[in-house]
Design a protein that fits this description.
434 residues; single chain; Aspartate Aminotransferase, domain 2; 16 strands; seven-stranded mixed sheet; Aspartate Aminotransferase, domain 1; binds pyridoxal-5'-phosphate; alpha/beta
Length: 434
């Protein structure tokens, strides 16, 4: 039998040539580190619905879905039609526009903590502002984050992202001494660490489903316990819902978990596939960034970005949310497909994997040495991640199924039960010779 690499190389010759050129221009050939995989990533020509197509003419059922941002699938007509209508009236002005007001009306209706909102162009900017605002509002400096938590590439939060979590993530991070890291879903240890810094604790930032580090939902007990500690100690509870916002229901996960965050960050889905980050918060906190009432000596700076609140993103975001609001059946449908994927994958691998996730997000972990469950990023890192990469790559090469190797899968409205069945068959084949 030919190896997956041989098959892949044979069917992606044009991609290989273009990627060689790409390496001449771009560091490692890419502009987002995780988009590179060995031996080289295929080069995309187009995408529609559940399918992504490469320049060689191969088609893949896509579970990466634009960094999990495309909950309706690629090029969703509901978004495309409004964006096309907007284009002739201009796509960039750098002045106030009504599309932003209309979009915020939808967000505020679904996300009660969004008493005040600011838009930026990436999730990274949103979390950077969230951290800055927590420090400005509390007058304290320390931010706690989760072991394995990914909030984008901001200097502040580029710490304890990758296992073993206590080593530097990059050169050039001038000052990360005001970040501490706590273990996900371990309330006792987390509180111990928070207790040790409580006098200078400005806030805690958490993803309610740990995304990049293993698609692991936080327990309600954990989130409630951390929130309680934070609020008792005059710090802010920051929830990063850039992945989870509008992913499981029309609104945020915090709302369905009865949590009381001070600031919530959004991104991905709410941009309708165009660049976005959103910082939403309680009015008394967000007003610290009001330039009409505060000087630069007593305010937090939120609000730069040439492309912030540009008319195209505001239009595409509103189109996406309006569709989801009118079609709440989307969540039921994709949630069921997620349940099916998790259950059937565990069966396909006959106890050798644990699946994690929630609703339409799912991930397969190849268990090692007596492990039975995945509660946090350390558990996920202890699994056989080489095998996970091989599994994903084999499906790209042999089955026309695309997961960004090593990353969680996102099911979109464009996927169906037959896609999940195809995924299970491909997984059974891999399980039979892994
Ligand atoms: C939870 C979370 N926060 C923040 C970010 C950063 O968003 P962006 O890549 O748009 O800067 C990401 C991106 O994957 C994310 O998953």
């Amino acid at each position: 039998m030919s190896s997956a690499v041989e098959i892949y190389k044979k069917k992606t010759r044009k991609s290989a040539k273009i990627f060689e050129k790409s390496k001449k221009y771009h560091v490692n050939g890419v502009s987002h580190n995780i988009r590179f995989f060995k031996p080289y990533p295929f080069v995309t020509r187009s995408a529609k619905g559940k399918t992504i197509s490469d320049v060689d003419g191969n088609k893949y059922t896509d579970y990466w879905m634009g960094h999990w941002s495309l909950i309706l699938g690629h090029a969703a007509p509901a978004v495309a039609s409004l964006v096309k209508k907007q284009l002739p009236s201009c796509w960039m002005h750098g002045t106030v526009n009504e599309m932003t007001v209309q979009f915020s009306d939808v967000i505020q209706g679904a996300v009660p903590v969004a008493e005040k909102i600011r838009y930026v162009s990436t999730g990274t900017e949103a979390t950077m502002y969230a951290v800055r605002t927590a420090r400005a509002f509390t007058g304290k400096k320390i931010i706690a984050k989760i072991d394995g938590g990914w909030h984008g590439y901001t200097t502040d939060l580029l710490k304890s992202v990758n296992w073993p979590f206590d080593q530097q993530e990059s050169l050039g991070l001038a000052d990360d001494s005001h970040i501490v890291s706590i273990p996900y879903n371990d309330l006792e240890k987390s509180i111990q660490i928070l207790q040790s810094v409580k006098d200078d604790l400005a806030g805690v930032i958490i993803e309610p489903v740990l995304g990049g580090a293993g698609c692991i939902p936080a327990t309600k007990e954990y989130l409630t316990g951390v929130q309680e500690f934070v609020h008792k100690n005059n710090a802010l509870f920051l929830l990063d819902e850039i992945v989870t916002g509008f992913r499981f229901s029309f609104g945020c996960l915090y709302h369905s978990m009865n949590l009381d965050p001070d600031i919530v960050t959004l991104g991905k889905i709410v941009g309708g596939g165009f660049p976005i980050g959103v910082i939403c918060g309680k009015e008394d906190i967000m007003k610290i960034s009001d330039t009409s009432t505060h000087t630069r000596f007593d305010r937090s700076y939120i609000g730069g970005g040439t492309f912030s609140a540009n008319p195209i993103t505001m239009t595409s975001g509103r189109a996406m949310l309006q569709f989801l609001k009118k079609n709440s059946g989307v969540y039921k449908k994709i949630g069921k497909l997620g349940d099916m994927a998790r259950k059937e994958l565990e069966k396909a691998f006959d106890g050798k994997v644990a699946t994690t996730g929630k609703g339409s997000l799912f991930m397969t972990h190849f268990l090692t040495g007596g492990m039975t469950e995945i509660r946090n990023a350390s558990d996920a890192a202890m699994c056989n991640t080489d095998l996970l990469h091989r599994y994903h790559f084999e499906m790209i090469a042999r089955d026309g199924i695309f997961f960004l190797p090593g990353k969680l899968g996102a099911i979109s409205h464009a996927h169906s039960r037959s896609d999940i069945r195809h995924l299970i068959q491909a997984s059974e084949r891999f399980a039979s010779h892994m």
